[in-house]
Amino acid sequence: MTYVKSHLEDFIENLYTNISITSPEQLDIELIARRLNIEVGYSHNKSKCAEIGGIMMILLNENVSRTEQWQEFAHEVCHLLRHTGNQTELPFPFVQLQEWQANTFALHFCIPTFMLQKLDLPFHKQLAITEVVQTFGVEYSFAEERLELYEIQMMGVKYGHTPSLL
Question: Residue 49 pLDDT more than 80?
Answer without folding.
Answer: yes
